[in-house]
Amino acid sequence: KKKNNNNNKKKKNDTRKHSHKDKTSARVPIHYSLQFLKGILILILILIIMIMITPSSKMTQWREKNAPLLLGITLVLLFDENYVAAAANPLLPPYTVDNHGYITGLGGDCSGKTLKTIQGASSVTDCRTLCGRNTNDDDDDNDNGSNGLGGNGGGVGVGIGITNSLCYGFSFNEEKKACEIRKEAFCSTQFRADNGNIIFIKSQQYRSKGPVDCESGVIDETTITPPTVIPPGSNRYKETLKQCQLHCDVEYSCFAVTFKWEDSNRQGICRRKSICRPESQYREEGFEFRYKFADLVPYVQNGDKLRFKQIATVYVDGAPARINSLTYWREYLIVSTETTGGKLIQVNPEDGSYSVWFDVAAAFTRNGRDMSFENQMHGGLRNVAFHPNFEKNGLFYVSAMENRPNNPKNFRYISDDANPIPADSVLVEFRYDLNGNAVIENSYRLVFRVGMPVYDHPIKMIAFHDHHLYIAHGDGSRQSATAGGGLANNALGKILRIDPLRNTNSGEPYTIPDDNPYIDDPNYPDEVYAVGFRNPHNICFSTTSNDLYVADCGRDNIEEINIVKKGHNYGWGNRTGTFVHLATGRLMIGVDPLPDDDEKYGFTYPNVQVGHFGYYGDIFHGQAVAGGCPVENGSPMSGRYFYANMARLGLLYYSDIQQMQDAVTIGPPSELTQATTYTASLQDVETGREYPSISEIVGGRSDVRFGRGRDGRIYFTSKVRGTIYLLLDTIPSPSTRTPTRT
Known about the structure:
The protein is an alpha+beta fold.
């Protein structure tokens, strides 16, 4: 009760109205204060006491006649908790939902953030088309699916499509022939009937978490009775639960409900709740928890079934290796083991045998430096790249996290932080003895350092193209807690490009290419190639078009795949996908649609975007993208780019390369398009078993990584199990095999 009181103090009374043709009647108010109810009960008791003690002869006769009634009322008011609960939980009149999934009959209008105003709307249908269709679907087996808000396949636009995704309702004014598409069509304020607008609120989908509840405050608690007419195939319980969910729909700040069906009373108790995490362990007997489901960009379509087989499982010191990258070298896969030892492991993909190729962490230590393993998620050894002239010069490079030196002014930093953590992103060169077939351990040479504000989102993958080394660097933000950004005057949230060879003329540790786009630009370091990234997790070059593919992990709403162009601005943290990013974060809440004049800001938008799904207002829900390499080898999967929802879900995605190249990524918002995302299922050829995701294969959190091997075939692995798998459908036939670029 104390929680309810505290929350109700913050809420205004909600008087909801509904119209019947040309007259408006008020619904029963539902935002009651328990203090107010207690006051009413006390006044009634005082009145009864006054009646009982008044010395009038007429009152005496009346008391004698009605004494049992007065006593009964007094006992009920004092001791009957059901009566008190009934007073606190008013009965809720049923909501009406039309055939298009909109709550109607509310009357008037309510406050909310307007996405778009349309003049000249001939009917409600015009408004509904822009807002999109939704249904109150209780299919609990579809948690990983799309909510079907109108995806149209390839070349999905962000005009109507994105409006559909964010639209929560709309108002229609028949006299003015106008409608307003609303993002936050919440009605915590009273409905207004004086502006000629009629509100339509989209009924939402809900997902069940069973008895699991959350500990956030209750907005209110209401008693709901079943509708008079029960549709065929339904029952009183289902229809009452649906009314509870509709009650949550009309309040945008309601993100979940807890519901209890009382069979003896043929009624339900409905509690509306604000932002909460359904994973918490709070329980209450008899109540079930359902959260409002959100699917921001629901354009994922079912795709092909791919065959795979296991190649090897790598162990370090008796435990599965946390494989962070796979790089092709001399018919082998060289995998980095991140925070499990900081080693490079050589794997034979033909028989699965493996051995330590180079202990990078040990070499750091022997050269007076130490690899940082302080953060198990973002520390250790990140990646390796072999110089294009490796077979002549023996040079290769590693990206890693290294303990910060005591005298940082004596080291080459591309950028540093005012309050750095005790670890830096580093790029280090080593030399391989081509005659002795072993790494020269004392050949350690630091190329550059980057100071970090936090451990999250440090240096990432590195890759060579035309003797230039491309380095992906994260924005240094902490998960969903801080937004970060890739537009500041530093190396964070950027793609960098250098020639890593020591400049023998100047003595500089590397050379900056003459055509780097920000040379002498005071806003960015000279090493920057492209800006505006959050966590550019993977980079890979096309072997045919030379395009640079970058998978950029989003915050709470969008994952991106970009074909990156020199000097382009990809928007983070002002933009995320084809949305305006809001500093508040949270699923659905943390984004707005692009303004109509967005083109003037000069942002470049993704070739592919995948929306998060979950419950409204969720944060850091384990959805992030891991990218691979384009398949361009004449195999059955040639012409596709594979990527994955890498963290908890492990869904394997792919998109058509031609669609990605044809996507419109610059211009007015209404003209932007992205390639379609398909979800692939997987079949183990050795057991015949089929899997809907990589998480099902590894038995938990997937943490997927991709690598391109001989002839352009695609491998994937998991940091959870240290197992490497081969996608068999990416193997070309002998007649179509093409050279492989590492």
